[in-house]
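Page 42, continued from yesterday. The earlier attempt failed because a stray header line got pasted into the input along with the sequence. Redoing it now with the clean sequence only.
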Amino acid sequence: MGRYDVEFTKLGRSMARFESELIDLRVDMGKVKLEVGHLRAEMGEFRSEMVDRLDAILKRIDELEGRTHDIADHVQELRSEGLRQYNEVINAVQDSHRNRMSLSSLEDRVAELERLVGLRPPPAA
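This time it went through. Structure tokens are written below.
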């Protein structure tokens, strides 16, 4: 009987240790659940913050896109204005050249008339 008592005592101690470890495990599981809950809360805050930041970035991109279109339109207007002014300058240069040619032709005619009338001596050859 003594042997059985010793074995039952050992078994009782083992059972007490097992129950203690089971309680510790439950406590640890409770801590893990709290930590997981805390982690979930932090992740929720992080997600919310990231969504807010992303929304702000997308809003800024939309604003920049609108400004880019405005600037592109302005550049196109400036390009058109530049081409118009370039064409005006080319036309002015061509008109000036035509006027110079006409003036030269008129000077030649006046010189020929003066020579014919006798007011000028003939040009030296």
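Notes: Residues 55 and 61 are 10 Å apart (CA to CA).
Reminder to self: strip header lines before submitting.
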